[in-house]
Amino acid sequence: MPLTLEDEVRLLSMVDVFESxxxxxxxxxxxxxxxxxxxxxxxxxxxxxxxxxxxYVLKEGRVQxxxxxxxxGEVTLSVVEGGSIFGALALGGLRSGEVYARALVPSLVCSxxxxxVQQLIESKPQVGIAMVRLLSERLREAEVRLxxxxxMQVTARLANxxxxxxxxxxxxxxxxxxxxxxxxxxxxxxMIGAKREPVTRxxxxxxxxxxxxxxxxxxxxxxxxxxxxxxxxxxATRSLSP
Length: 242
Known about the structure:
Strand content: 25-35%
Number of strands: 9
Distance between the termini: 45 Å
Helix content: 40-55%
Order of helices and strands: HHEEEEEHHHEEHHEEH
Structural class: alpha+beta
Radius of gyration: 19 Å
């Protein structure tokens, strides 16, 4: 069922870079945007024509941004939560044709033509400033991930990832923090630069430490301090090499 204008405005008002817009501006944005519903596991369709770049607004859900690599695998760039943006304008110049977006849960995405985004930034510089801040945050996150790849064993990298996922999408329960998305070991591996087998061994090690447990393929953080200790273990020699 199509969303009402009221719902469109409400969802757009919750997007981080559009917080400064007033209702009339949000309504204009809603009229220009094109909505796409993605089922879990579905990949966002790329623009049909070369140069037809768009900015994607994730109204609801969670998507995995990734690139394909020559051996048939993939590397995750980031996981975007509802209320944020992605696409060429939000990836620091990477062409959207090089980056794919896969829904990790049922998601609602709307797309905006680059020319409309540019007009919006010209009339509302606060939107451009917010986008720059978002880009800076994502660059810092990328730097942290590169440092982890250089200095941390797979178990420590996985522990850091679980901590980040717990902070971004975790739900507090009596048993601890529950990460709702049922990530596969392959998906987790694409996020920390490791193959599935080392991730499985690292997952077993974290469970044996009592830091986490798996319940119906979902990660539960049982002992936050134990997980932090594992995350701080740095070594240039990787006993669980990818």
